């Protein structure tokens, strides 16, 4: 009975630790989807996952000990005590399952944080590409007309300069409208 009491005490003391880790995991998980998490929170995700692995490693041998006390015919264990050891074995397996599920949630939260970061980087890249495309049009036209060729048809026109500015504005406006419509700007 003393062995049962010690094992039960050990297993029961894992529950408060797991509850505190679970609460912290839930708060981080909520932050992952609602806003960009900080580097400190990502490090905390990693540390929690490592701590859960340590707990899993520490509780692993208890399963085998409880299983042997429950099923093997040991002279020091009475038949009436086997259901108690079965109860402890069930608690240990339950704790193992909780640890495994929390590790999976942490892995998913970490992956989600990476995906959110990549999505934000993609959005920034799209905006930069859009603005560069808009700026490229007037730069190219100004570069062509800045070469000072002798025979350019628009140079002889009275409104050639204003037409070139109009083409630039129309092209830039068209690109701006298309990028805005596509959701890049």
Which features does this protein show?
Methane Monooxygenase Hydroxylase, Chain G, domain 1, 185 residues, mainly alpha, single chain, 5 helices, 2 domains
Descriptive report:
There is one protein chain. This protein has 185 residues and is an all-alpha fold. The protein folds into two domains: 2-120, Methane Monooxygenase Hydroxylase, Chain G, domain 1, CATH 1.20.58; 124-182. The protein is built from five helices and no strands. The protein has helices at residues 2-12, 14-34, 39-71, 82-145, 160-182. Helix 2 packs parallel to helix 4 (82-145), helix 3 (39-71) runs antiparallel to helix 4 (82-145) and helix 4 packs antiparallel against helix 5. The N and C termini lie far apart (71 Å).
Instruction: Compute the number of strand runs.
Output: 0
Question: Poorly predicted ranges (pLDDT <50, ≥5 residues)?
Answer: none
* Overall pLDDT metric: 82
Characterize the main sheet: none
Number of domains: 2
Give a quick summary of the entry:
By secondary structure, the chain is mainly alpha-helical. The protein is 82% helix and 0% strand.
Topology:
Elements: H1 2-12, H2 14-34, H3 39-71, H4 82-145, H5 160-182
Helix pairs in contact: 1-4, 2-4, 3-4, 4-5
């Amino acid at each position: 009975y003393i062995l049962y009491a010690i094992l039960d005490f050990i297993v029961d003391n894992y529950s408060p630790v797991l509850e505190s880790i679970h609460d912290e995991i839930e708060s981080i998980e909520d932050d992952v989807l609602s806003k960009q998490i900080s580097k400190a929170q990502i490090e905390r995700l990693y540390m929690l996952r490592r701590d859960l692995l340590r707990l899993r490693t520490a509780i692993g041998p208890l399963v085998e000990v409880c299983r042997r006390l429950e099923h093997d015919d040991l002279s020091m264990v009475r038949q009436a005590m086997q259901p108690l050891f079965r109860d402890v074995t069930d608690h240990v397996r339950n704790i193992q399952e909780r640890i495994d599920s929390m590790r999976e949630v942490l892995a998913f939260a970490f992956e989600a944080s990476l995906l959110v970061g990549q999505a934000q980087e993609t959005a920034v890249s799209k905006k930069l590409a859009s603005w560069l495309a808009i700026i490229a049009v007037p730069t190219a036209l100004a570069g062509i007309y800045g070469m000072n060729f002798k025979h350019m048809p628009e140079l002889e026109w009275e409104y050639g300069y204003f037409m070139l500015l109009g083409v630039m504005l129309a092209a830039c406006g068209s690109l701006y409208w298309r990028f805005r419509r596509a959701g890049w700007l």
